[in-house]
Amino acid sequence: MTSYRAPVDEVKFLLNDVFQVDRYDNLPKFSDAPPDVRMAIINEAASICEEVLHPLNSSGDREGCVWMPDGHVQGPRGFKEAFRQIGEGGWIGLTIPQEYGGHGLPLSLGQVVVEFTSSAIWRLPCTRNSPAA
Question: What is the DSSP letter of 93?
């Protein structure tokens, strides 16, 4: 089985030393993401990607997605539960405005989470009308 380590140190360097995001704390959204909040989000996103999402790659490779005759797609074992955990954890709404049920955090922070997620798990093949393994 492969392993995945989210590039937390690299992201921290980019946000703090290259982009110097603390100087934007007077802007909307950035004031709600001080350094301790940013690091908590980045560390937790890394943990979810490393421990929950990445291990699903092997079942995803073996089983793939199946496009069923009735039009729904059956995903590999574990994916439904993992993505439910992501949804219930509020990760999908990280950058969505609070008035729409999101957290209203900066897009730059959301992109970090998207990068970790995309790196941890790959696109799965989908076949039509073949049963899941």
Answer: T
